[in-house]
Amino acid sequence: MRWGVLQFPGSCDERDALMACERTGAEARLLWHEERDLDGIDAVVVPGGFSYGDYLRAGAIARFSPAMEAVSEFAGRGGPVLGICNGFQVLCEAGLLPGALLLNEDLRFHCRQVELIAGNERLSIPAKHGEGRYYAPEGVLDELEAKGQVVYRYAPRQNPNGSARDIAGVRNETGNVVGLMPHPEHAVDPLTGSTDGLRVFEAVAAAGAGA
Amino acid sequence: MTVEVAKHRELGLTDSEFELIVEKLGREPNDVELAMFSLLWSEHCAYKHSRKLLRRLPTEGERVVMGPGENAGAVEIGNGHAIAFKVESHNHPSAVEPFQGAATGVGGILRDVFAIGARPIAILDSLRFGELDSLRSRHLLDGAVRGIGHYGNSIGVPNVGGEIYFEGPYEHNCLVNAMCLGIAKQADMVRAAAAGVGNRVVLMGASTGRDGIGGASVLASAELGEGDDAKRPTVQIGDPFEESKVLECCLELLEKGLLVSLQDLGAAGLTSSAGEMASAGGVGIDLDVAKVPLREADMEPFEIMVSESQERMLAVVEPAKVGEVIAVCEKWQTGSAEIGVVTDSGQIRILRDGDVVGEMPVEALVDGCPLYDLEPHAPEGWIYGNRVTLRGDATSEETLLALLASPSIASKRWAFEQYDSVVGSRTVRRPESADAAVLQIPEAGNAIAVSIDGNGRRVACDPHAGTIEAVLECAQNLACVGAEPLGLTNCLNFGNPEKPGPAWQLDQAVSGLAEACEQLGVPVVGGNVSLYNEGPEGPIYPTPVVGMVGELPDPARACGSAFIREGDAIALLGPFSPSLAGSELAKQGGVLDAGLPQPDVAAVAAACEAVRNAVRAGKLSSVHDISDGGLACALAECAIGGAIGCSVDVQPLRERGCSPEDALFGEGLGGFLISGERETLEALGATPLGEVGGTTIEVAAGDRSLVTDLDVAAEAWRSLPNFL
Prior knowledge:
Helix content of chain B: 25-40%
Strand content of chain B: 15-25%
Distance between the termini of chain A: 14 Å
Distance between the termini of chain B: 54 Å
Low-confidence stretches of chain B: 215-232
Structural class of chain A: alpha/beta
Radius of gyration of chain B: 26 Å
Strand order of the largest sheet of chain A: 2-1-3-4-11-10-9-6-7
Radius of gyration of chain A: 15 Å
Oligomer: heterodimer
CATH superfamily of the largest domain in chain B: PurM-like, N-terminal domain
Largest interface: A-B, 31 and 33 residues
Helix content of chain A: 10-25%
Structural class of chain B: alpha+beta
Largest sheet of chain B: 7 strands, mixed
CATH architecture of the largest domain in chain B: 2-Layer Sandwich
Shape of chain A: globular
Order of helices and strands of chain A: EHEEHEHEEEEHEEEH
Largest sheet of chain A: 9 strands, mixed
Mean pLDDT of chain B: 94
Number of domains of chain A: 1
CATH topology of chain A: Rossmann fold
Strand order of the largest sheet of chain B: 8-10-7-11-9-12-13
């Protein structure tokens, strides 16, 4: 198993994501934003940060990068892709995931440990963002819920940003592309607070294995 | 001649300084030269009122890798790695435009750290504002916090700690001090000294514009022939995306061994960077301003030389490597231009398209500024006034709640949650969870702890003792997580040094800083001085901000400050003998006065060692240093943090001669509130006070005894957002 972690100018969490992938027992390498060659890569992380300064709109420039074109093709072939925070924004901008991330309800950046509900599990993972309020039209939200595409929700009273229906993360219809605002790569080490994030990486890798 | 005299005065040079420049040049300076001299001979660059005092500070130690004079100091952490760190002020820009002022303060301190080849791994900040009932203070607080968050969050460096105080004397002149730590392989570290005649000078990063020609704005007045374009905002605008690219670019260049030396562009821009690089290397530098990438084509040579545009770095590069350097800059999509050459002339020469437009001996420009002796004179008594906000007949419960709700003591969660504290995967103790931030250093197989502190009110009461307290407070915070101090950085924020009162405060504070560092054996590896911090009502509280970095072997054992277990014993460790002098309660009661008890450094150091050893041995459940608001507030913080009550009796402090009120709310050095198994605490020689448990905070203190519901205390302590 080998992960590729995208690196844009302005990425912040790419080295953390690389280490997190390695902690799952897999190999991992950085993929420069100008690379198109994903040969030998089994799964991709689009990491957090402020790609290209997030100028214009978060993720709006990164989606046009050569590496993201390759990732779109990879995802189309069923390759597993995990977008974290800015990566989630990029995947939404690229049309690989439904919905959009808006400015937090109170217009402030928040960094705090949040409880997520993932199926029957509860995960403790840090969230840190200023533009993480998940939005989609009501009809789309109904459809996402009906099809089981809402894979991560903030636990009651844990929603830090005003996301619709407490949605923290969603997947595409085929299940190989997952995006979430909280940072599982910052919950892989008991010393820094939690290891619950490993399960997010494992779930995405498993989705790829099934594809 | 009369025109020239007016011009140099407008630029802040005295007549005798101007005459000295004429003497050193053998002629009158032209406009370019005068602009450059006026900046490098300013207090900000030349430290002309503080350099003599700073010679008192101990700067050497076994673990020191780089000391004062470099872009940042650095201490060895093990396995060939060093921790670089520095604190710097951005006070006046923040008072004018808090968001950009604070943001560029963070940007500047980050550049200082990566300029020596260290990857930034943490930011802390120390902020001072006026009282929150002032609209201006709320505006400054909000802007500064958003600015710090914006820059640090965007660049991916965690903000792991800090402090904020609200005091009247900062109403007009807020303080924004930012500290940055970085990690470097010692082999990759680089100094700022230019070397190698014939080597090229390369300017990297953002282009150069008219922004930030602040101190020099008068330059662009009619006398220099420039027009109205000069009326620009003087605060620089930060672009963390640009800095992120320049940061990665510089670290890659250093890792590949492509740079001879590196320096960031801060105050006074190219003038100070080129001047200081040449001075440190004992060489000359020729710069051609026509080769500097500009935002506006019609900039004059003096504007290019003094521009403070952000996100720029200056490097010295061997001629054969220039192509490779430019290629790395292009990879990171950041600017680069070869703008000059290292010479053996001992001169800084400014050219425009090959024509010399300025030429000065480096020695005269950088080291020629006369250093002044202060004329200190102690002010009579307490000069900052008093304001009563708490009735004299308030009950102990009311007093505790008033103290917990004081914005200076209350939880700063509102602020620190706006900062990313976890990026980088190093943060083992986040803000508010322990007395110092703890970061793991896998590169060396250990961890570091860092704390920043400086209670200006107490320093105002007694600048010498108050500054010793600031140093010891940091040492106590480090001890709480089991860390031993390695080095210290400081930012001396004071009023006008040409006035006898602030001069005396500065002199006393530096003496205190030197004394505390000597006695603790902690070297000062860098720092910054910010003077002339005054508003219409007078000077700020004298505010030496101390940032201390320590080492701990096992981050898993770093103790938190919150109570964790019902039934644990609570004890007091250390030579704590509190009094109301300089305390938060004295402030609220309106009875502040000059004077503080004299600190016993050796006794506090011994207590720190005992706590450090106990924490490292994993013997304690919690440790919290007793600080603002005294024992009662420290207890409440431990209890609120752990969501468990406590019950204690302060009789042991009564036996040390404290009144019930002193024991509850008095402040002073050397007090650690520890919890754990009773026998363990007794074996440490700690004084038992009580027990963890229940849902109330109960303190027996004779006729001042108090019982407060934990929920009520927590509500008061978390009330900061209510003021905003």
